[in-house]
Amino acid sequence: MRILIVEDEPDLLRGLARSLREEGYAVDTAADGEDGLFKAVEVNYDAVVLDVMLPRLDGWEVLRRLREKRKTPVLLLTARDRSADRVRGLDTGADDYLVKPFDLPELLARLRALIRRSASEVRSVIEIGDVAVDIAARAVSQKRKPVVLTAREYSLVEFLTLHRGEVVTRTQLYEHLFDENDDSLSNLLDVHVSNVRKKLGHDFIATRRGHGYCIEG
Amino acid sequence: MRFPKSIRWRLQLWYGALLVAVLCGFGFTAFHFEKARRFRRIDEELQVRVAALVVALRSTNRPVPSNEPDSGTPSQPGRQRAPGTPPLGELRLTPQQSALFGDGAEHYFAVWLREKEPVLRSPNAPENIPQPQSRDAAVRTRGKFRESFIFSAPVDCVLVGRSIAVEESELQKFAAVLAAIGGAVLAAGMIGGWWLATRAIKPVDDITATAEKIAAGDLSQRISTAETDSELGRLAAVLNATFKRLDAAFAQQGRFTADAAHELRTPVSVLLTQTQSCLARERPAAEYRETIEACQRAAQRMRGLIESLLELARIDAGQEPLRREGCDLSKIAADCVELIRPLAAKRGITIDADLSATPCRCDVGRIAQVVTNILANAIEYNRDGGCVRIATARTNGTVVLTVHNTGPGISVADLRHIFERFHRADKARTAGHAGLGLAIAQAIVQAHGGSISAASEPGADATFTVCLPA
């Protein structure tokens, strides 16, 4: 899952990015509205965390212009907690709204819910054969026994699970699993696929030659 | 509503009392005029008869031929007056005189010599008419009779009287009519007075109702002032202006509080995010250090905000009086320039100082803060490698400090709000300050009785001017 954070307070931006990366997300960052809008339009993020008060282009404007091009789920962050501001945010096209100061666990939970909803998934535990993927706990078990995956491996499984039954291209996987700072060594997709197969069985991920990968629902 | 406390009731009482007094005065006067008029007429009638009687008596007592046929005067047995002797046995009246006394026997008469009992009296005269004693008055009222008398020769006293029972009953009727009219006028007056008082008090009731709503917390209420020129209309206008200012002050206070809370949200977010993220797992020492540094920056920002807020609150409350002392504004400015030079140097901004001696009386610490805030603003909203010019001058009775900076300038919209609390041109937090610097500067300058203004054109330079009384 790849997420964009647009926030102008550097310490807040760093803290958020660190936490999200540790949760296994691929994280891009932008420190002003213009940069944020550019990235949000260029890349098909799984979610955008957007501050409202931004230099150059405020959050409302970024959201409005982004909505002309993309349906990416957006979580608005703002210091304004009047109901009129919340209404405006949701009406402009935000999918969720969080008032500063917020608790990090709540932000993470809301992000998970956003991503799940955008994949039209209402449950947080998805079962595929004998494998269960718990999106809330970010854990995978097989035959009720936990399977230890790296964050990258989990992200791969989660993304394929949320798009189960579809063929996911390598480009899509690159876009959603790796952020702008990942070097070429860490994004060796084949290595991650092979590791997941070792842990969950070779048939868990099917290869569609010339197209991509697929998990049968 | 206890009525002695109600203005309407008090007005009504006073009004009623006045009306009663006026009506009574008028009624009594009217009654007495009428009474006097009637008595005057009676007295004239009586006096005519007294005179006629005296004439008759004299002609009777004159020595006349006893057989005078057509004299009509009664013949008297005693022709000569002698003391102690009743001179009159009979009184003959001419028909003309008789007519005066009429048939209805309305008028009666009595005539005295020296005796207490009248020597002569008309048949219809009441019993026991006391002989008049006073020689001053010519008329008297005795019970239901009005009598006129004269002490005149040939007898001692001649009295003519008549009953005034009819007049008295008429006067009583007249009094009753007067009382009835007075009562009616009083009732009409009281009703009219109540209506007038109600009308006059109504705007006061309106004002009270509005003021009660405002007291209950609805500051948007205003008194409707249909009549603007009356006393109450002017009062309502004054109250409305007061309410408006109160409303604005409350709104400003509310906005200020909201802004202050808002400004604290971001550093608290930093603290929460950094600590929660950091504590999620074990980390190398460098990462802990990084987190603690971020927390420190957030805390310093909060400290700066709190200090600014307290400073503003102190100036607003006027708790700490200004410590005015003789000083030189140019020296204060020079010190501030030296302090702020490193900040300017970071962005390659040069500061030109053109400071001429400008003695004045002010609170040195506070004015230094004003200069620092304006300089910091001039550096922050400058372009890299730009320039700040600071100058002091003295014009008649005023010392003037101008700070001029190159840079993007101030938009017209921003210029209008530039001294408002928490106003920031860029709406974002990158600046690391809360937008209170110029507001504090303005508050301090105004506390000194001076003025501060900003001028700029978008895309051009900006100039801040501070005027202080010398």
Protein model, in words:
The complex is a heterodimer of chains A (about 220) and B (about 475). By secondary structure, chain A is α/β, with parallel strands linked by helices. Chain A folds into 2 domains: about 120 residues, Rossmann fold, CATH 3.40.50.2300; about 90 residues, Arc Repressor Mutant, subunit A (Orthogonal Bundle). In chain A, about 40% of the residues lie in helices and about 20% in strands. Chain A has a 5-stranded parallel sheet, with helices on both faces. Chain A has a 4-stranded antiparallel sheet with strand order 6-7-8-9, covered by helices on one side. In chain A, strands 10-12-11 form a 3-stranded antiparallel sheet. Chain A is globular. The model of chain A has no long low-confidence stretch (mean pLDDT about 90). By secondary structure, chain B is an alpha+beta fold. Chain B folds into 3 domains: about 160 residues; about 90 residues, Orthogonal Bundle (Helix Hairpins); about 150 residues, Heat Shock Protein 90, CATH 3.30.565.10. Helices cover about 55% and strands about 15% of the residues of chain B. Chain B has a 5-stranded antiparallel sheet with strand order 2-1-5-4-3. Chain B has a 5-stranded mixed sheet with strand order 7-9-10-12-11. In chain B, strands 6-8 form a two-stranded antiparallel ribbon. In chain B, helix 1 runs antiparallel to helix 3, helix 3 packs parallel to helix 4 and helix 7 runs antiparallel to helix 9. The two termini of chain B are about 60 Å apart.
Map the helices and strands:
The complex is a heterodimer of chains A (217) and B (470).
Chain A: E1 2-6, H1 10-22, E2 26-30, H2 33-42, E3 47-51, H3 59-67, E4 74-78, H4 83-92, E5 96-99, H5 104-118, E6 125-128, E7 131-134, E8 139-142, E9 145-147, H6 151-162, E10 168-169, H7 170-177, H8 189-200, E11 206-208, E12 212-214
Parallel strand pairs in A: 1-2, 1-3, 3-4, 4-5
Antiparallel strand pairs in A: 6-7, 7-8, 8-9, 10-12, 11-12
Helix pairs in contact in A: 2-3, 6-8
Chain B: H1 7-61, H2 95-101, E1 107-112, E2 120-121, E3 139-142, E4 145-150, E5 157-163, H3 165-215, H4 231-279, H5 285-317, E6 325-328, H6 329-346, E7 350-355, E8 359-362, H7 364-380, E9 387-395, E10 398-405, H8 412-417, H9 437-447, E11 451-456, E12 462-469
Parallel strand pairs in B: 7-9
Antiparallel strand pairs in B: 1-2, 1-5, 3-4, 4-5, 6-8, 9-10, 10-12, 11-12
Helix pairs in contact in B: 1-3, 3-4, 4-5, 5-9, 6-7, 7-9
